[in-house]
Amino acid sequence: MKLARVYPIVDSAAWVKRLVPLGVRLVQLRIKEQPQERVRGEIREARACCAAAAMQLIVNDHWQLALEAGCDFVHLGQGDLDGADVTALRRAGVRLGVSTHDEGELSRALALQPDYVALGPIYPTLLKAMPWPPQGLERITQWKRRIGAIPLVAVGGLTLERLPGVFAAGADVAAVVTDIVRHLNPEARVREWLSAARAA
Fold first, then answer.
1. Torsion of CA 132, 152, 15, 184, to 10 degrees
2. Spans of the chain below 70 pLDDT
3. How far apart are CA 132 and CA 6, in angstroms?
4. Domain residues for 15?
5. Count of structural domains, the chain
6. How buried is 117 (Cβ within 10 angstroms: 0-12 exposed, 13-18 middle, 19+ buried)?
7. Whole-model pTM above 0.90?
8. Are 159 and 125 in contact (CB under 8 A)?
9. 3-class state of residue 145 by DSSP
10. Which of 7, 13, 40, 70 has a CA that sits 20 to 30 A from residue 142's CA?
């Protein structure tokens, strides 16, 4: 399965709508600490927006709501795997991405035959306090060697300047958060990311 080389991670359907005219083909919706009904509405709105624009949507964590809305992908952290019905997701044709941070988590992820594996944080990140140290480029190369043809998504502290090194180390995809959503001109920044991905 081939994924877009770069995808933004955003926290609302409004953000998804902003990305549509820019040519984004894949986006992750990551909503934290919100009431379930609000999350359900955001997912449905983002799903409808993506369907109309031929854009794929990854829903972070909320696998039941993603399943209910008929989304393309679910992304699960290690803690979220404990309560997730992966069989139900597979039966519905929902693709699965899994976060990994160490060898044990990678082994657990690979046992699920995921559609992609995410590794992070590659660099220090401003988004949240991480219990793991930055993974670095060498870990990307190690992970890619382990997972073979499964797409490897690098995430955490990525910038345009760091993107060539991330791809050269073996990542197939770069997921970006703060370098877009906290930029003074997010739309222009997205275009720069897409252009850099094409050049790579």
1. 70
2. 1, 126-131
3. 23
4. 6-199
5. 1
6. buried
7. yes
8. no
9. helix
10. 7
